[in-house]
Specification:
Radius of gyration of chain A: 19 Å
Distance between the termini of chain B: 66 Å
Number of strands of chain A: 5
Number of domains of chain A: 2
Oligomer: heterodimer
Order of helices and strands of chain B: EHEHEEEHHHHHEEEEEEEHHH
Largest interface: A-B, 51 and 51 residues
Number of domains of chain B: 3
Structural class of chain A: alpha+beta
CATH class of the largest domain in chain B: Alpha Beta
Largest sheet of chain B: 5 strands, antiparallel
Helix content of chain A: 40-55%
Shape of chain A: globular
Strand order of the largest sheet of chain A: 2-1-5-3-4
Radius of gyration of chain B: 20 Å
Helix content of chain B: 25-40%
Number of strands of chain B: 12
Number of helices of chain A: 8
Structural class of chain B: alpha+beta
Distance between the termini of chain A: 44 Å
Largest sheet of chain A: 5 strands, mixed
Order of helices and strands of chain A: EEHEEEHHHHHHH
Strand content of chain B: 15-25%
Chain lengths: 202, 296
């Protein structure tokens, strides 16, 4: 099949097998080597890329799902300002992932920061927006919802992500080279830098 | 493209009936939901015997979520992350935690409810949790009439955990009871990652009510991902004889019965560790319920 997609800002038109995993396409046809994947599809978590802004394991995405997609690998992400925020946070905390999982952990942190942004936008827009058009909430379910929300808020740090949530997100990457508490600090710092820059711009 | 490797044909139906027609015309083609399980199998690519693909992502009807007073109805292509977003408003805390324990959001963004229920030989957290909650699944038979049937999720599998409708039906909707007036309690526990470590992982869930010190209407499901899907009316009846505070003897008796049942149910590839873990999980849960009962 012919695959048209945008990889790291460049438009590509490739002839690939329809079931070929994105990780193979990146390695064999685009020649990117940032993903360090070795697991052959066993979800080691080292081949994470951003597809249309969402983190995804490139070994689990087939070519036929990628037509028109915008893919950002670690090589492409490294050139953006967003990456500099995270690198600055690494430097400030004095700890960073090992070279093996550096790309994947950095991309996961970016996806967490994106998620925090989205959640903040949803909060501003009110919960009604997130519920969808068909939702008819009874008083009891509203009570459950607000109890869940309150419990979550009470556990939140500055960025809105708890240590538990960060550990769960990073469970995707099997490498244990960095403490979760350090990663929490890194995420909070990167989020702070990003918010400051946005505030300056606006 | 490697020499001799065929590129599978990808069908992209827009309606359920079109998908069924595609399947009738190409019996070897497989339905493709999120693809996380299929692609994580060893030797998925390159594979010279790759089957054609019927991609379900273009079918709008399969991506809808509808919430009524007593149930939440989700299309088979709703991702687990979408279910979590919706579920935070309607599910109990325990159920919500059980669903959020499924992998990280990277996987949950991609994995769909239908896909996680329809894997042919591996049972994950969704199957166990939904079977315990008595969720119903709508399946369309792959036939010219494409007849729809609602069946309980627990009836989708045999005791070894094999999906009974692997090649002759399409799962289209799931209906999850969310009755806010219900007094049912729910407990779910997962040990190890079912995806990465299926030979050691155990998934346990139990729905019950406590009435006058008795464990009433318990429904328990234990899943050993690659080898067993255990739900037994007899065992549930045995659990319903539990009176709180429960004695250590009674707990030991129930645990012993579970161990012998599981030994009879499992496939040959399951480990004794899984059975031991399942038994300890049940003991642990009974103790937890006991403590919460004693604390009032």
């Amino acid at each position: 099949m012919r695959l048209n997609c945008n990889i790291n800002g460049s438009q590509y038109s490739l002839v690939v097998n329809s079931d070929k995993p994105l990780s193979h396409i990146l390695r064999e046809q685009i020649m990117t080597f940032g993903d360090n994947t070795q697991c052959q599809g066993a979800s080691c978590g080292n081949c994470i890329v951003l597809i249309n802004g969402n983190a995804a394991l490139s070994c689990l995405v087939p070519a036929f799902k990628l037509n028109g997609a915008s893919i950002l690998t670690f090589e492409g992400f490294q050139k953006t300002r967003f990456c500099h925020d995270i690198e600055r946070a690494y430097a400030d905390v004095g700890n960073q992932p090992c070279p093996q999982c550096y790309p994947s952990k950095t991309i996961i942190i970016e996806s967490i920061l994106n998620k925090i942004d989205k959640e903040n936008q949803n909060r501003i827009g009110g919960f009604q927006m997130a519920q969808g058009p068909h939702n008819d909430m009874s008083p009891n379910s509203q009570a459950t919802a607000s109890a869940n929300e309150q419990a979550a808020r009470s556990r939140m740090g500055t960025s809105g992500f708890t240590t538990e949530m960060i550990a769960k997100e990073l469970a995707m990457s099997s490498c244990q080279c960095i403490e979760v508490s350090d990663l929490e600090k890194i995420i909070n710092l990167a989020y702070k830098y990003r918010s400051r820059r946005r505030a300056r711009r606006s | 493209m490697p020499e001799g490797l065929r590129s599978p044909t990808v069908f992209t139906p827009k309606t359920i009936s079109e998908a069924i027609t595609n399947k009738l015309k190409n019996p070897d083609a497989r339905f493709w939901a999120g693809g996380t399980y299929i692609m994580s199998r060893p030797n998925f690519y390159p594979n010279p015997n790759q089957r054609d693909i019927i991609a379900l992502s273009g079918i709008q009807d399969l991506s809808r979520i509808y919430h009524a007073d007593r149930y939440l109805e989700a299309g088979a292509m709703v991702t687990i992350q979408q279910l979590i977003t919706m579920g935070s408003f309607v599910f109990s805390k325990e159920l919500y935690n059980a669903i959020t324990s499924i992998g990280s959001s990277v996987i949950r963004n991609q994995a769909t409810i239908g896909g996680s229920l329809c894997t042919s030989d591996m049972r994950f957290t969704m199957s166990c949790v939904l079977a315990t909650l008595n969720a119903q699944a709508e399946i369309r038979m792959v036939s010219k009439s494409a007849a729809a049937r609602w069946i309980p999720v627990s009836k989708l599998y045999d005791r070894k955990g094999n999906f009974l409708y692997a090649d002759n039906a399409l799962l289209t909707k799931i209906r999850i009871p969310t009755d806010p007036t219900s007094q049912n309690m729910f407990i779910s526990r997962t040990l190890d990652s079912p995806m990465n470590n299926p030979t050691e992982s155990v998934i346990f869930s139990l729905q019950y009510t406590i009435s006058q010190g008795n464990l009433t209407s318990p429904v328990m499901c234990i899943t050993l991902p690659g080898s067993c899907f255990y739900m037994s009316q007899d065992f549930d009846n045995l659990l319903s004889t539990v009176n709180f505070p429960v004695t250590p003897d009674k707990t030991a008796k129930i645990a012993k019965r579970l161990a012998s049942d599981l030994r009879l149910s499992v496939r040959q590839n399951s480990s004794m560790l899984q059975i031991e873990r399942a038994v300890r999980l049940l003991e642990n849960v009974l103790n937890e319920i006991n403590i919460s009962y004693l604390e009032g």
